[in-house]
Amino acid sequence: MAEVLFYERPVPLNRTEHKNLRLKGIPSLRFAAGVHSVPLTGVEFPAAARDLPILFAGSSMEEAGPMALLGLRQNENLFVDASGQWAANTYVPAFVRRYPFVLAEKPAGEEGDDFTVFLDEAYEGFGSDEGERLFKEDGTDSEMLTNAVNFLGEFQQHVGRTQWFMEQVRKHDLLEPRNIRLEKDGKAINLNGLYVISEEKLRKLDAKTSQEFLQEGVFGWIYAHLLSLSNIDRVAQRLDLLEQVETKATKN
Questions:
Q1: pLDDT given for residue 252 in this prediction
Q2: Is the pLDDT of residue 49 over 50?
Q3: What is d(CA 68, CA 52) in angstroms, rounded to the nearest whole number?
């Protein structure tokens, strides 16, 4: 389930069980080092497009959703170094920034809001001695927790808007498969199950749809995606540099 990618022990936030829990800032994104892609919301496209390739991935075209490509090999994020630092001056997706909290849908039939806040109990920043409290002495949310929950709420709204965007993309049959093949020194890397928006199909949209897309900001997201595809070469360069380091380490 993509929603809990890299969450080892997600549990519902509980005012009683977590009343003494504290969160200390850990200057590391090591938890994201093993993911080669993460979901992306449409509102992030313009900022992410400067650094990351934005593609659509899924088991089928009907299920495909936007994601940021972070690596070219399984379980490897080329934007997180050995010390857990994200590459300087490059975009960090909101999917990563919301950790160690996440909103998850409640089981059908359960009372209350549709979503509930979960946290990853395995996160190294949680403890009872150091850091900011999640709850005040009177049991109410601390400012830190309030800000975190607000961020989750905004993220979920952007997810909803992105789902609407994908409905429009599918409705007008704008996606086309794109297999990425990178060759070097006789070795090849193949990335399958990916989709991009077809510029040819985009040009054939009728005037009414084009006007709607313009008014709703759909074109901005689409062109950010298309412009971002050149970043695939930049990700390949990152892998090339890493492989050079790996080769040197092997020789030594």
A1: 65
A2: yes
A3: 6
